[in-house]
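Data availability (excerpt). The following record was deposited with the supplementary files.
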Amino acid sequence: MMENSFKGQVALVTGGTKGIGKAIADKLTAAGAQVVVTARTAPTDTSLQNFIAADLTQPDSADRIAKEILNKYGRINIIVNNAGANLSPGGGFSTLSDEHWYNDWQLNFLSIVRINKALLPAMIEQKHGVIINISTGAAKQPIWEMTMSYSSAKAALNVYSKALASEVGSKGIRVNVVSPGVVKTPLMLEFIENLATSSQITVDAAFKAVMDKVGVAMGRMAEPEEIADLVAFLASPNANYITGANYSVDGGASPTV
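Predicted structure:
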């Protein structure tokens, strides 16, 4: 159903060289989009022809990315703000320095605000566009031992996204949020390994501890492609009347209706 859905459209996927971002970039490319991918380091996948090296925590990165895209293509149709990570140690408030808070908010909130601000004028001029911000289930269900500063930055992203959707909806631009739960990505696997090391337990025990803490009803991690499927739908014309929404893809982890 998605074949050629995005033919002639230009999409930006930040953090698109691995994990959820790569799955999204691959999905949109397969459906016909010209996909521009950003990350701090060049990908090992040589099939990615449209790559911009950028550290999104640096304030000037957003304007540089926007300029490169608009100079090359003259338009932007889809923005998927996927870049993000839990950069801080676990252990609660006493372990978090000002630098930890600053780094998490720079990457997980302010970088997204900057990317959108840099590219929204082009979307407004063309009277069409889709923005999908990748958040996390931890923004609604924070785990103080693991995700305090990260969760707070993503919670701010959720509020910002709703406000932005209200502002630009009448201009033909849709803004939605996708909130994954526990996803089998390199970052998540590294997180579990680090948890096992710091807790002096096995990796299997650390995995079980995370799954028990989050409370995933389906009892497994999501595959990145399962997140990408929803993102592609929300970016497509099939979702033309959906904006200002936040979709959980968490295997039933959310304890509320």
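Summary of structural features: The chain has two domains: 10-181+223-248, 182-221.
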